[in-house]
Structure to design on (668 residues):
């Protein structure tokens, strides 16, 4: 049995406005013992996701994170003790362990993952980010060769892969991101055709210039004004894949939705469709095989942003919500 | 060749706010002569549609109606002179003749329709209204037996048929309409399970009571606050068929869209899809056959609201936008 302390990050209280370090505290507890059917895992790499912020508020696809408890979050972890068939010490799993060094979790809530180098790819291109990009673009957005595809939060973990998959499917790809450095990288390194810096450019005007024939597929990670600008530039029969609304997670809920709904939806015969990765569990192996072949062939470049130290996890999430990362952000714990 | 005068209703100017009688004028012109490839028709029954109002402003699926010209509108008309192969005197056609007694139109812009009793069914259940209800509900909304289906403008030409088709497909049906008389009729005559009077009831609360298991399909004719109330009550994987936004046609465009977009679209994995009837031209015969069999079997009751006299057409549209009709409104011209 593991002995020693278990450092944990607690959510002190449900944030009312912008997330701040004061919403979290570092605590030390005992390393738990797994019950029958459980495994004890040591957390290695914590995944940071904009959705973490939405979970705090509730009203998502999972129950709210209660104040005073360990902050929820997915991680790659190593089994250190197993009381469940099919799991052995040394196995790697992906699970919602929360932000802590050790967790005892039901084996049925853990997905075994293969050892690989670098392990971080299990959280980026072969994790939720890569699979979300894959299914959201291909199964929801359904781009055809020659289509114009726009993706927001384009330098983020999902957007950076969406754009690259769209390119290899023969589309013209426009990324929307916050910062000239991000925009430069999208074009020079990731092969995007155009990049729009929403912090300095008028997005609607920039879209009209970059997509003179209109937008066929918009992969929406942000909602709000950028969704509205895309709506006004969609082509007839365009598809909007609704993946997230990061512009609306960190603060009060917006007073109103984007203009043009439902008028433009009708006139242009648009389809807006929301999705969550687990909707596509039955296609997971096919998706992973495609992603692996594309990475191996150099057709998808994987960007990661790895910080160190459990104590830095709150700042890592706050920074992610402010858009400071390029590619998939994670925190190395052990 | 026909001689005599041709009474016409002109759109005097593009309305800036609510439509009023002053936006129209009655004019008399000569009966036109058809050119080669054209037919001269005598207008019998003019179709009134909320979309007529949207056409005036432009930015729809057709070009705007220019001020000073005959107001656009579909009608059932009779051919009085043909200079086009395939059309003979006495044939009935559906075409955008505009609001006038006679029109010379390209034969290719006219659809021949069969003589039937009552002729008005060509504009209601077998016309744009019935076909829009059919395809929008079945091909876009895709209800399954046992689903809860909500339709707005439920006592209107489209909504009254949507609800009846949903009932015969085994769904629980809730209609939203403006007025206790309409709500009573939906339940007593058209077989709806519940009816909500949006003028006197809080729609969100009424929906929670009428649809305790949530909404699976929402057929949206109105947009605005009612769309928002439905969004908040949709079930996971629900479908919203976007048919129109009548709440937003007669006045200034809304400052904002409904709240909950895209957040609820993502979390509930909703699909919002806009459509226009012509998208389903290839399924038209099948739809008409179904509608005819349902009407013959008494499974669909057809409500019509027929006014008389070309000069009353502006008032008929203004009244339709104010919701005074039950069922399909039309004006008998000759």
């Amino acid at each position: 049995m593991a002995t020693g302390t278990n450092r944990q990050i607690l959510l002190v209280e449900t944030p009312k406005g912008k997330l701040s370090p004061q919403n979290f505290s570092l605590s030390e507890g005992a390393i738990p013992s797994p019950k029958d059917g459980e495994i004890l895992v040591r957390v290695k790499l914590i995944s940071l996701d904009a959705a973490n912020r939405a979970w705090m508020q509730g009203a998502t696809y999972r129950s709210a994170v209660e104040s005073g408890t360990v902050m929820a979050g997915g991680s790659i972890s190593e089994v250190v003790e197993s009381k469940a068939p099919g799991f052995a010490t040394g196995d790697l799993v992906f699970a919602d362990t929360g932000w802590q060094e050790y967790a005892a979790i039901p084996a049925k809530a853990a997905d075994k993952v293969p050892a690989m180098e670098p392990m971080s790819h299990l959280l980026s291109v072969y994790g939720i980010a890569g699979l979300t990009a894959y299914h959201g673009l291909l199964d929801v957005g359904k781009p055809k060769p020659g289509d114009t595809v726009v993706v927001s939060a384009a330098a983020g973990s999902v957007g950076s892969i969406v754009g690259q998959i769209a390119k290899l499917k023969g589309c013209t790809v426009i990324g929307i991101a916050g910062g000239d450095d991000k925009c430069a990288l999208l074009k020079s390194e990731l092969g995007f055709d155009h990049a729009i810096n929403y912090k300095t450019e008028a997005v609607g005007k920039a879209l009209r210039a970059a997509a003179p024939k209109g937008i066929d597929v918009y992969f929406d990670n942000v909602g709000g004004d950028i969704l509205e600008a895309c709506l006004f530039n969609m082509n007839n029969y365009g598809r909007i894949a609704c993946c997230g609304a990061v512009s609306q997670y960190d603060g009060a809920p917006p007073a109103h939705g984007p203009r043009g709904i439902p008028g433009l939806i009708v006139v242009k015969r648009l389809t807006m469709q929301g999705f969550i990765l687990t909707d596509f569990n039955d296609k997971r192996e096919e998706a992973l095989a495609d992603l692996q072949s594309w990475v191996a062939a150099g057709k998808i470049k994987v960007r990661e942003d790895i910080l160190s130290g459990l104590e830095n996890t709150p700042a890592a999430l706050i920074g992610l919500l402010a858009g400071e990362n390029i590619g998939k952000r994670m925190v190395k714990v052990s």
Observations:
- Residues 128-141 of chain B form the longest helix (14 residues).
